[in-house]
Amino acid sequence: MKRIGLFGGTFDPPHVGHLTICKTVLSSLSLDEVWLIPTYQPPHKQPPEASFEHRNNMLQYLISHEPQLKISKVESERRGRSYTIETVKILKEREINSQFFFIIGGDMVEYLPKWYAIDELKTMIQFVGVTRPGSDFVDQSVLKVNMEETDVSSTVIREQIERHEHPEGLPIKVYDYIKEHGLYGS
Questions:
Q1: Domains of the chain (ranges, CATH numbers)
Q2: Distance CA 104, CA 82 (A)
Q3: Euclidean distance between CA atoms 16 and 61, whole angstroms
Q4: Which residues does the chain have with pLDDT short of 70?
Q5: pTM, whole model, 2 decimals?
């Protein structure tokens, strides 16, 4: 059975912190692959600044040298709000011989009870919480993976670009793409 990590997010823009999370979980849990799933329209926050196409293209640059990392466009195929349970149902239908591990930040574990259809979702996948130094959680149903601190944020990167500063934590190919397409006020 194939072991696949699922890592959803807006990736607006994707950065080395996202890459570090994927590689850490891939190694820690001996997964075969990790699929990055850019949300089409997040249910819990404002729409991303960059279009789905731009975010997908930036992700391609981010993972270009990582053969075990893939991008799934499943949420753009569905359109509309991106509820995790709907995405997982589709992926389980397509990948019947796979076991899925859904990766979230350790700080998000406490919000799992508020997720749409969480009880059903927990029967379909294994949640993985990534913790950083100084953070922890107590939900025994969530696998814990410890990771070194990566002080990178998409919000901060967007603000740095808007101020015409060189953003930290952004691979040069992703930054070149942002400048070429005039994203985030560049």
A1: 2-151 (3.40.50.620)
A2: 15
A3: 11
A4: 43-44
A5: 0.94
